[in-house]
Amino acid sequence: MQKTLSIIKPDGVSKKLIGEVVRVFDSAGFRVAAMKMKSLSRTEAEGFYYVHKERPFFTELVEFMTSGPVVVMVLEGDDVIKRNREIMGATDPAEAAPGTIRARWADSKQNNIIHGSDSEESAKFEISYFFSEIEIF
Length: 137
Ligand code: GDP
Description:
- By secondary structure, this protein is an alpha+beta fold.
- Helices cover 41% and strands 19% of the residues.
- Bound molecules: guanosine-5'-diphosphate.
């Protein structure tokens, strides 16, 4: 079984979408293997998005990700990394397929409700960034 990291971003939490998003994952047949709410420090947000540190939107992205609490989750399932990315929809909600999380609820390319690991390598890094082995069920 494959695992991936999901984050309900500060906009998803403030728009009261935690339940909606978890329902989407439950309905997709993913198993929630770990879950916690936390506030990201600037250092944690910068470290998480270090691959984007040269991008022009990096500072704004870190501001956004530290603007309120997030919900971090480990999801487990067959081919869950790819399937979760499909369910999330494209980064820009204007380009996201109908019915996807971002098409339904995201406001902009930045404020797009949800994060999901994009490869096995990033899933491994991102899961261990937030969870220790004993927190994953
Ligand atoms: P993802 O894998 O679909 O989340 O997209 P990326 O890895 O390309 O970008 C990471 C996150 O940075 C996105 O989910 C957005 O929150 C944000 N982001 C991406 N592109 C832009 C942009 O052009 N402008 C701004 N302000 N934020 C962006």
